[in-house]
Amino acid sequence: MTHVVVTGASSGIGAACARAFGKLGHKLSLGARRSDGLAGIAPGAFCHGLDVTKAASVERFLAAAIAANGPIDVLVNNAGLARGVEKIAEATGEAWREMIETNVLGLLEVTRRALPAMIARKQGHVVVIGSIAGHKAYVGGGVYCASKRALQPICETIRMETLGSNVRVTSVDPGMVETEFSLVRFRGDAERAAKVYDGVRPLTADDVADCVVFAATRPPHVNLDTIVVMPTDQANPQMVHRAPKA
Ligand code: NDP
Ligand code: 8X3
Questions:
Q1: How many CB atoms lie within 10 A of CB 8?
Q2: I need a surface site. Which of 74, 144, 149, 198 has the fewest CB within 10 A?
Q3: Which listed residue (144, 147, 154, 170) is catalytic?
Q4: Considering only CA atoms, which of 215, 204, 58 is closest in space to residue 128?
Q5: Can you give the pLDDT at residue 2?
Q6: From the alpha carbon of 133, which atom of ligand 2 is closest?
Q7: Longest dimension (CA), the chain
Q8: 88 C-alpha to center of ligand 2: Å?
């Protein structure tokens, strides 16, 4: 049985990953700031509060997860967010800092603590939830796109630095997925968030979880480097086919 840790498991892709790994019978450790809802995500999972932007919280979460479920086999670095769609010239630094601190520094804080034991055990898989935003920038997405682009050299570097230790590093980079992502981006404006998916067939969180589970269940000598997964109706971050209104 494998111990799978999922950050940001309280909703969306993280919750779907937890459910998918749970169905395969793996031991789960789930973390998020909204820890109250975690227990209902996957039966039997170890659940603990986690704020990836706070080093002490990361420390406590990982120590508790390892105490509960043993060494980490798969780390799904999913916690992340976009905040706002302001152009660079119009934005304030607060949202920038939140995105960089969560998506980049938070991910690094979790990963750097998980890696040494993986290297020592010569076994482990680091999965990163990137985004097509890391492949193609768009107006209003400058800092979010930068935060996701940053994950590419981080993954490349970890592959080089762990070479020979059997550690695998996979980036799963989705296009549009219908989750709480847009609600968070638009600071709770449900109407505006719903418009993002109006007339579109987006990916579901389960579609992305399928990719994560596929990567994690390859034989140990196979490392899926990057999986870019898009809705059929999306060509790039800003080109989406919308069904004409009846
Ligand atoms: P959701 O908003 O549904 O989920 C985001 C998750 O991240 C929540 O569980 C949230 O939990 C958690 N989270 C946010 N900040 C922190 C933090 N500081 N510490 C711990 N957990 C945190 O969105 P998605 O499921 O869509 O997003 C998951 C990942 O997928 C993100 O990295 C996002 O960038 C990426 N992504 C999303 C796409 C989309 O279109 N939806 C497309 C491409 C990539 P809580 O608030 O309880 O802490
Ligand atoms: C989320 C996808 O295109 O909204 O990472 O930035 S996008």
A1: 26
A2: 198
A3: 144
A4: 215
A5: 96
A6: 6
A7: 59
A8: 17
pLDDT averaged over every residue in the chain:
97
Reported residue count of the chain is 246
Angle of the 55-69 helix axis to the 107-121 helix axis, nearest 10: 40
Q: Give residue 244's pLDDT.
A: 80
If phi over 0 gives left and psi between -120 and 50 gives alpha, with beta otherwise, what is residue 69? alpha
Is the pLDDT reported for residue 28 higher than 90? yes
What per-residue confidence (pLDDT) applies to 92? 85
**What pLDDT was estimated at residue 133?**
98
Assigned token pair, 44: 């039997």
User: In ligand 1, which atom is closest to the CA atom of 16?
Assistant: 25
Whether 100 has a pLDDT exceeding 90, the answer reads: yes
Which structural domains are found in the chain, ordered by start?
A: 3-240 (3.40.50.720)
Residue 118 CA: distances (Å) to CA of 12, 57, 76, 169, 183: 27, 21, 14, 12, 35
Around ligand 2, the residues with Cβ closer than 6 Å are 131-133, 141, 176, 237
141-170 average pLDDT score: 98
Count of C-beta atoms within a 10 Å radius of residue 195: 12
The owner of tokens 């086919």 is 241
Q: By CB neighbour count within 10 A (0-12 exposed, 13-18 middle, 19+ buried), where does 115 fall?
A: buried
Q: Report the predicted TM-score, pTM, of the whole model to 2 decimal places.
A: 0.98
Nearest CA to ligand 2 atom 6: 133
Give residues with Cβ within 8 angstroms of 89, minimum separation 6.
Answer: none
Residue 161 CA to residue 15 CA, distance in Å, equals 30
Q: Given the structure tokens 């603990």, which residue do they identify?
A: 48
What single letter denotes the amino acid at residue 209?
A
For residue 90, pLDDT over 90 is answered with: yes
